[in-house]
Amino acid sequence: VFFNDQSSDPIIRWCLSGILAGIELGEVNSSTLFTIACKDGDDFETFAYYFTSPDIILKTTGICSPEEIMQNCQIPFDKAHKKSKKLKFSFIEKNTCLDKILKYNFDDYIESHNNRS
Predict the structure, then answer these.
(1) Count H helices, E strands: the chain?
(2) For the whole model, what pTM was predicted?
């Protein structure tokens, strides 16, 4: 995996999330060079948002401002700003299977962390 190591950590993390999306979506052929450039709204970016900042977790914890999302999820500000806008204007509660699993795992993590204290 090659990336610009002069980029900030959030941008590097975002790029790596996009690469993971390519692998998960079966877009990566190991015998060829694979270049990724996420565009707004593509499958890679959608995966990266779910991987780095799932809606259900942000809503559960009350993290909704771009600054909070950027700080807690360690994603670039422009991505955090877009995510914040999306959260504010999503009136319909999604209860997809993925959302339920993420929420369950998050709750389980918090409970186990609290039990250690």
Answers:
(1) 6, 0
(2) 0.60
